[in-house]
Amino acid sequence: MKKTMVLLSAILLISLMGYAQKITPDKVPAAVKEAFTKKFPAATAIKYEMEMKDYEINFKDKGVEKSANFDASGKWLETETEIKESDLPKEVSAAAAKNFDGFKVSEVAKTETPGKGLIYEMDLQKDKEGYVVQFSPKGDVLKKTPLKKEKEEEKKK
User: Fold this and answer.
1) Cα distance between the two ends of the chain
2) The CATH classification of domain 83-157, taken from the options 3.30.559.30, 3.10.450.360, 2.60.120.260, 3.40.50.2300
3) Which of 83, 85, 109, 156 is the most exposed place for a label (fewest CB within 10 A)?
4) Using one digit for the tens of pLDDT, what is the confidence trace for 140-156?
């Protein structure tokens, strides 16, 4: 029984590692490359990853690090741009300070999607408590996920 559990755990671990894997450009569908090039004509330092069934493309656009996700047909799903905390709209900074008093910011990004538009995402921590929080540009809290749960979800992708 113990050997079976170890074997099943090993198989699960190996299968999870394959969900976000680097791929070579020749493995990326032409539709994805075309859509990416059209949306980001100035992109440099392009690296491709497969994330479940979608394609994540990490790149620099005018010196700024970004990542964009597309489905296999070339449909744009989202773009994430890492930003400095000082680049946040003042409404978002004020809302974070008010709703998460004493929390330290460890990561900040802005995400654009076709459905939700622009949102700001922050990793906030205080002692052992931490959250990934999404804000609207006006400072409304849209989603709050415990950091541990967010990291587990990323591993599943």
Assistant:
1) 30
2) 3.10.450.360
3) 156
4) 999 999 987 655 555 45
